[in-house]
Design goal:
Shape: elongated
Strand content: 15-25%
Pfam family, one: Toprim_2
Largest sheet: 6 strands, mixed
Number of helices: 31
Domain Toprim: 179-258
Protein name: Toprim domain-containing protein
Distance between the termini: 85 Å
Mean pLDDT: 89
Helix content: 25-40%
Number of strands: 36
Organism: Desulfovibrio subterraneus
Structural class: alpha/beta
Length: 896
């Protein structure tokens, strides 16, 4: 069995074991399973080359996905799973090339070595796949198999030595006279083409022109095929290299890849066919055209359309190559065959069909002359309007646009959004350009416009972009979406040139102003030790909860809930410092949380819907700022109970002239940070994991360490978010395993199942911190679990008692209600029934002031008395005739 078969076998076994696919072996293929695209049981994949899974409904569905995307965990960590052995010192490199790159090792053994690379100023080593560029092995390129993933160590490959003018060529490559040799950028690209029988060499970068290699083969009349990457750099350097080849009097052609695809990606997908190469050569001819006429000619040669529209140098041209050109070509073909028959050329043109002769003439210099003579070319726009995608808000039907990039000949493009009404006629489209794109004109006919619109609609239909009104996790796509990056199954996805993220076959774009979250910062786990020293166990519990918040919806899906976290504490205990630091770790600078006293009801509802799989932090929401409108400004946390299970944040009308309402689901987690403890119903209190910050652990040097956390920025610590999302699967694996352990550990001590579950969830998230922080040892995880069990026991005691303010109120009431020098016993209780206490709360407050005692905050007290345990509320503001005054008034009624 070859080295190629071993990784292929591992992939097949992983696919068979994955319950998502439900595949079965049939005749060299894995088949069956529900297609993610159409839902039919039509999935299939080759067992010999299991690199791309497809739907067999090629015309109606055409779904396909690289296995590297479907099983990312299988294509990572080659270092630990396949270490080198004495018998196979290149084992890690072999498996990497076979499994990750899909190459047949039997064809490329001996072309490479397994090397190592040590990062500068670091003890970190990674194995590499090393390819040599010279016989002496002084110049080489190496691909890092397990590169560091941080901002300081970007890049997945390293060079040794100067490779200017050189190429890497397959060791078995021989170049014969008249050969066509492809010049590609990467070594893996050249190997991919070698696998399909195409001679290719790697220039190693788009900017490197391999003049030394070309000079060495000057006399072989090679046709060099420039086949660089399909990105902007590849486009720019293709034209530069073509000019140099002209100066060197070398034959050349251009092969342009569509989009930003790579040759090795295309190889794994099985797309490098003769037809694909032919198409790319045609794209190369279009790309290298020096005039609009030349580009139109190449288009006509390919399609022989009598009417079409082309873009050239960001302007649009109508081309009419009608009957006259067709007749001229036909006449020329007939004349040529008749002449051949007269001359007795029985083996040549006389045997060719008219169609074949016509084609040969069209592709010759004579055909070029005939095209120029008979085809009409007219400019119809001084810009190139390029339809990018259709963008729709899932909720508001009227909020949808066709997004265009208006490309100018000599200035930067602009992006415009056009409503459907602008695409109903050439006049409306022309008006849209004038209004939205300065100096842009469209002078084509309505027929020209309809020709273009059909192409635009085809693009829009295939590129229907989801616009989300929040930042973070998009459950429907199983992806995280932020301003500059998206993450899908541990893979980082950059924003594409069209301004959205391509997640598989789906496009998505966040549409949320005012919230900025960046994931480009650095991450160094060494700060955990100082973090624990400064913020102690309550800070570590908050960090654990914060990490769990990044996966709140995945946890809720499996466990039906995710708890609330309450952080209280005395002033100066570090609440603001720790919250701001954790936000910086998640890419958000200069932010602590939402002050509910400064938000309207509508503002709160929107704030609750802004984030997904991130915390919503509510700060100091219990303050009484002395304003007269305090009643309306208080917030009842019982309104948040539905958030615990990820339910609605509150209904609002949808602006679509219908009766629809939107009740956005709560997709975040909830953190409450204030000085006083939250009061409310037992159902609310059971949902909260409460930690109290104090200064008892502060000691020498703590203040200086705390200032370090205050000084950090998104750039210095914001990579925490990126690192966590890249480790999504591993974190969830550790979390769910640890949760079962902690739930069993807490059960004998905690009677409430909900309280037990909540605290076990935070403890399990603490165990998951070990994926990111080596200092989060098993001992530290266990100690955090002990701390959280203590907090759970304290929560049980709290549920059995009253809020401290309520306890103080009843203590004060019983003191004042007893007989004093000026009042008789029971004077505050207006009840005639010994089983009932009837109070006028303002009267109690006035008595406190008369006796020199602190008066209660009645607004807050009224909310808390609703849940009194010592004396249960019977009725509030109920009319009652006082036993003392005989008059009727509204009182609060409690059981005695």
């Amino acid at each position: 069995m070859s080295g190629f078969d071993i990784p292929a076998r591992d992939v097949v076994q992983a696919l068979l074991a994955d319950p998502r696919f439900q595949l079965k072996e049939r005749g060299g293929y894995l088949r069956g399973g529900p297609c993610p695209g159409c839902g039919r049981n039509e999935l299939f994949i080759s067992m010999e080359k299991p690199w791309v899974m497809k739907c067999s409904r090629a015309n109606k569905c055409a779904w396909e996905e690289p296995v590297r995307e479907l099983l990312p965990e299988l294509f990572e960590n080659f270092v630990d799973r396949y270490p080198p052995t004495e018998a196979e010192p290149d084992r890690t490199a072999n498996v990497y090339l076979g499994m990750n790159r899909g190459f047949d090792l039997s064809k490329i053994r001996g072309w490479y070595d397994q090397g190592t690379y040590q990062y500068p100023h670091s003890s970190y080593f990674t194995p590499t796949v090393r390819f040599y560029l010279d016989k002496e092995k002084n110049v080489y390129w190496q691909r890092l198999i397990k590169p560091l993933a941080d901002a300081q160590n970007k890049g997945k490959a390293r060079f040794n030595g100067d490779y200017k003018g050189m190429v890497w060529a397959p060791p078995t490559l021989t170049i014969e006279k008249g050969d066509r040799v492809f010049i590609v950028e990467g070594i893996f690209h050249a190997i991919a083409l070698y696998h399909v029988g195409i001679k290719a060499v790697a220039a190693l970068s788009s900017s490197n022109f391999p003049d030394a290699f070309i000079e060495a083969h000057r006399d072989k009349k090679v046709c060099w095929v420039l086949a660089l990457d399909g990105d902007k750099a590849g486009a720019d350097y293709t034209k530069r290299h073509a000019a140099k080849l002209q100066v060197l009097q070398q034959r050349y052609e251009v092969c342009r890849l569509p989009g930003k695809q790579d040759w090795d990606d295309l190889f794994r997908a099985g797309r490098i066919t003769d037809k694909f190469i032919s198409d790319c050569m045609y794209y190369g001819r279009l790309f290298m055209s020096e005039t609009a006429n030349e580009k139109a000619y190449h288009y006509y040669v390919r399609h022989e359309s009598k009417y079409f529209i082309i873009d050239f140098e960001n302007q649009l041209y109508r081309v009419e190559a009608g009957q006259k050109l067709s007749e001229a070509l036909e006449t020329a073909a007939i004349t040529r065959r008749n002449k051949a028959e007269e001359e007795g050329d029985e083996d040549g043109a006389a045997k060719e069909s008219i169609a074949a002769l016509r084609r040969a003439i069209l592709e010759s210099p004579r055909g070029w002359d005939m095209f120029l003579q008979h085809a009409d070319l007219d400019q119809i726009a001084n810009v190139y309007p390029e339809c990018l995608y259709h963008e729709a808000d899932e909720l508001v039907e009227s909020k949808q646009f066709y997004v265009f990039r208006i490309n100018y000949p000599r200035k930067a493009p602009v992006i415009v959004k056009l409503e459907g009404t602008y695409l109903t006629s050439s006049l409306n489209f022309s008006s849209a350009l004038i209004n939205k794109a300065p100096w842009a004109e469209f002078s084509g006919t309505n027929g020209d416009f309809l020709y273009l619109r059909k192409k635009w609609m085809d693009i829009a239909q295939d590129r229907n972009i989801r616009m989300v009104q929040y930042m973070g996790y998009v459950k429907a796509l199983n992806a995280y979406v932020y301003e500059n990056r998206a993450y899908h199954k541990g893979k980082e996805i950059p924003l594409n040139q069209d301004g959205f993220f391509q997640v598989g076959k789906h496009g998505v774009r966040p549409h949320l102003r005012g919230v900025h979250i960046h994931t480009d910062g650095a991450f160094n786990p060494d700060w955990l030790e100082d973090y624990i020293r400064v913020f102690h166990w309550q800070g570590l519990a908050l960090l654990a909860f914060w990490l769990g918040s990044l996966f709140a919806q995945q946890i809720r899906e499996a466990q039906k809930s995710y708890p609330f976290f309450e952080l209280t504490g005395e002033p100066g205990a570090g609440k603001s410092t720790v919250l701001e630091f954790l936000w910086k770790c998640c890419g958000r600078d200069d932010y602590e949380g939402l002050d509910l006293l400064k938000a309207t009801d509508a503002g709160r509802r929107r704030a609750f819907s802004q984030l997904s799989n991130l915390p919503i932090v509510l700060i100091e929401s219990d303050r009484d700022d002395g304003r007269k409108d305090g009643r309306s400004r208080q917030f009842d946390f019982d309104h948040c109970k539905a958030f615990y299970n990820g339910r609605g944040t509150g209904a609002r009308g949808v602006n679509n002239s219908g009766n629809e309402v939107d009740e956005s689901l709560f997709q975040a987690s909830l953190v409450i940070a204030q000085n006083a403890e939250v009061g409310g119903s037992d159902a609310l209190l059971e949902r909260i994991v409460h930690c109290h910050a104090d200064k008892h652990h502060h000691g020498s040097g703590t203040r200086e360490l705390a200032r370090w956390f205050e000084r950090q920025t998104v750039e210095s610590v914001g990579g925490f978010l990126r690192t966590a999302l890249r480790s999504e699967q591993r974190i969830l694996e550790v979390y769910f395993a640890a949760f079962e352990r902690f739930e069993r550990q807490f059960t004998p001590h905690i009677k409430s199942e909900r309280v037990n579950k909540n605290h076990a969830q935070v403890a399990a998230a603490g165990a998951a911190l070990s994926v990111l922080f080596p200092q989060m040892t098993e001992q530290r995880v266990a100690l955090l679990g002990d701390y959280l069990m203590e907090r759970a026991q304290t929560r049980m005691e709290r549920l059995a008692s009253d809020h401290p303010l309520v306890e103080d109120f009843w203590e004060t009431f019983h003191y004042l209600n007893s007989e004093t020098r000026t009042r008789k016993h029971g004077w505050l209780n207006h009840s005639k029934d010994e089983n009932l206490i009837v109070l006028h709360l303002k009267e109690v407050a006035a008595a406190c002031r008369d006796e020199g005692l602190p008066a209660p905050d009645l607004l807050q007290l009224k909310r808390l008395l609703m849940h009194s345990n010592k004396h249960k509320l019977v009725a509030k503001n109920k009319t009652y005739r006082s036993r003392w005054t005989g008059a009727s008034a509204r009182y609060w009624h409690f059981s005695s």
